[in-house]
Structure formats: C-alpha cells, structure tokens
Amino acid sequence: MNETVLLVDDEEGIRTVLSVAITDAGYTVVTAENGAQALDILESSSIPLIVTDIKMPGMDGLELLQRIKRDWPDSEVIMITGHGDVASAIKSLRLGAADFITKPFYDDALEVSLFRALEKINIREQLREYTENLEHLVLEKSKELVEAERMAAVGQTVASMSHAIKNVAGGLEGGMFVLEKGLELENQEYLRQGWEMVRRDVERIKDLSMDLLDYAKPVSLNPVETDPNGPASQVYNLMTSKAQAGGVDLILELSDDLPTMRMDPDAVHQCLTNLVSNGIDACQDLLEGDKKVWIRTMDGGGVSVRYEVTDSGNGIAPEILTKIFNSFFTTKGSRGTGIGLMATKKLVKEMGGAIMANSGSGKGATFTITIPTAHLVT
Question: 76, 153, 198, 274: which could form a disulfide with 117 (CB 3.0–4.6 Å)?
C-alpha cells in the first residue's frame, strides 16, 4: 500500500508487536513513544493514519487526538484501549477517532480498522476533488453567462450563483458525511443513502451546467407562420406522462378563434415546457386537494395572444413573487437552480412579449405569456 502509519505508545514492547502487525498488513511504520514526539513528527511529515494508545504519561491519547483533529483534521486516528475501558473508547469516538482496538490485540481487527480509516481518507479526497472540479466548471459557465448577457447587476448575479453552488456543495458534503458514517459503522443502509445523496447532487450540478450553457447561447429565433394553439398542444402531449406519474391532472383549454401568427413555435414550446414542469412540481408539495395544472390559450382583446399556465399548488407568497424572475432565484429549495424562469423570460423578451406571474399563499399560481399583435400574420 505504501501508506505510512504513525504508531504512538509509551511501552516499547507494544510498539514492537504492533509495528510488526502493521508492517505485515502492508504499511510503513513510524513510531513515537509519547504525544509530544508524535506531534513533532506530524509537524515535519504528512502522515494521515495514526494509531495511539489512550493511557500514556504526560499527554494522553485523548489529548493527542484533539490536537491532531485541530491541526490535521483530515487525518484518521485509531485508539488503543485496555479491555473494559468502554468510557474512554466512546469518548474518543465523540472526539473524532476513526475507530478503537482493545488489548489484547488481534491482527485481523487492527488490519480492518486501518483499511476502513484509509478508505475514509480516500473517499473524502475523491469527493473533495470532484466537488472542486464541479465548482470550477460552474464558475466557468457563469462567467460565460455574464459575458454573453452583459448583465448590469454583475455583483448580484455572481452572489446568487455562488449561493447555488454552495447549496450543491453542501449537499455533497452531507452525502460524504453519511458515507463516512456508513464506513465507520459498516452500515450498508448508510452507504446506500450517502451514495444516493452524492449521485443526486452530481446530477444537479450537471443539469445546472447544461442549463447555463443553454442560457448563455445567443437567441436565434426562427419565426414561421404558426397556429398559436400548436405549441400548447405539443407541450400538453409531452408533459402528460410526467403529470400522471405525479398524480397531477393536466388540462388543455384552447381558444377557437386565434389568428395565425408569425412566431418561433420552438421558442414558445420551450417556454411553456418550463412553466408546465414548474406547475407539476408545485403540485407535488400539495398535501390535500386536487392536483391540477391548466394550459390555456386566449385572444388578448385583439392586441395580443396569451398563454396561461395555472397550477393548484400552495401558491407563492407576495414577498417571493417579486423575486422569481431574478438571477438564480428558485422556490424549489434544493430541487431547483432558478435558471428555468430566467431562460423563459429571456425567450419571451426576444419574441417581443412579456411574462408575468400572479399568486398568493395557498392560492396556486398563474404565469401569463403575452405576445403582441405586431407579430401576427395579417
């Protein structure tokens, strides 16, 4: 393995016996006869695995453990305790020890403890590296986004983006903690839960990166003569299966007297897809009552064509409603990135239209896209 283990024990005989056992397990051994000597060694050498006796004159193992966790928090410490000294063993675990072994020693138990401690170090390092790479990727995409859009409020956007990254990084750290507990306790359920948390947040960061790439692309509309009901019908057919899977009733209400428009049906399709998907998600938090999402088209009094997406969810509080189109703001907590409504507003603006939202706590939400008659085919 070529990994080095620092062995700390004031008894020469114990150091000799354990040195042989640790060497036979494939590690290199460095020894210290007391806590002060161990700290001197750690100051000059990077040794992530430490095995130390608890009962030692001067600085005992518990004090040494605390010093190590303070100055070298990524190091893993295995404690040696006498048979029956359960109180000290439990205290050491509370102070951050990876494991403990009892006298008399069993080679298999020591080898397993060292292996588990090394696994914790390796997993932590891999997750840290992966998180740093993902954060670097997202920061690169956010820079492209700022440059492409020439946002006036650059400071606010970067702060919001950092918050989004922090949320994902926090989720990854949580998954790492559960994984470590699973290794420490040899608990398969913890390992499964921890990996699921990590997998979910990796998917989130991947989706965030792809959304940023899409958002940063210049808008290139392709207007053609289109029945305005067409995109709404297509979105209804596309999203019906997702709605049914979530127990949501998706309802399509089309106006019969809409004029043909010169518009980009793909852009309208994308906007409606974002809004309908959000509406379905909003219904998932509804504990009681009918879960419904409506897609409507209507004539805007002869001066525009309107699309409405309404959900029967819990609604959006007034103080939140004013922020929903802001950079990276989301009402979905850890489930959302806040890019969907940003992209929708951007597309609607490029089509010469406007988007607005109406809601209230417990009253559902309605999003309305209005495209003026200047874009109608006469």
Answer: 76
**Is the dihedral angle over the CA atoms 278, 280, 284, 287 positive or is it negative?**
positive
In what helix (H) or strand (E) does residue 276 lie, and over which residues does it extend?
Answer: helix 265-284
Rounded distance, CA 166 to CA 169, Å? Answer: 5
Are the beta carbons of 50 and 6 closer than 8 angstroms? yes
Overall residue count recorded for the chain in this entry? 378
pLDDT band at residue 162, thresholds of 50, 70 and 90? low
| Reported pTM | 0.46
Any idea which of 36-40, 146-150, 228-232 has the lowest mean pLDDT?
A: 146-150
What are the tens digits of pLDDT across the range 284-315? 777 677 889 999 999 887 678 899 999 988 88
Question: Can you tell me the distance from the alpha carbon of 295 to that of 359, in angstroms, rounded to the nearest whole number?
Answer: 16
The residues spanned by each domain of the chain are 4-105, 117-216, 224-375
Alpha-carbon span 14 to 326, nearest angstrom? 64
Q: What DSSP assignment string belongs to 91-125?
A: HHHHTT-SEEEESSP-HHHHHHHHHHHHHHHHHHH
Secondary structure (3-state) at 199: helix
Angle formed at CA 54 by CA 116 and CA 43, multiple of 5 degrees: 75
Within 10 A of 206 (CB to CB), how many other CB atoms are there?
13
- Cα–Cα distance, 267 to 230 (Å, whole number): 12
CATH topology of domain 224-375: Heat Shock Protein 90 (3.30.565)
Using the structure block, give the residue that is written with the tokens 């062995």: 7
Classify residue 115 as exposed, middle or buried by CB count within 10 Å of its CB (0-12, 13-18, 19+).
middle
Q: Which helix (H) or strand (E) holds 325?
A: none
Coil, strand or helix at 256: coil
Q: Does domain 4-105 have CATH number 3.30.70.20?
A: no
CA–CA dist 179, 357 (Å, integer): 42
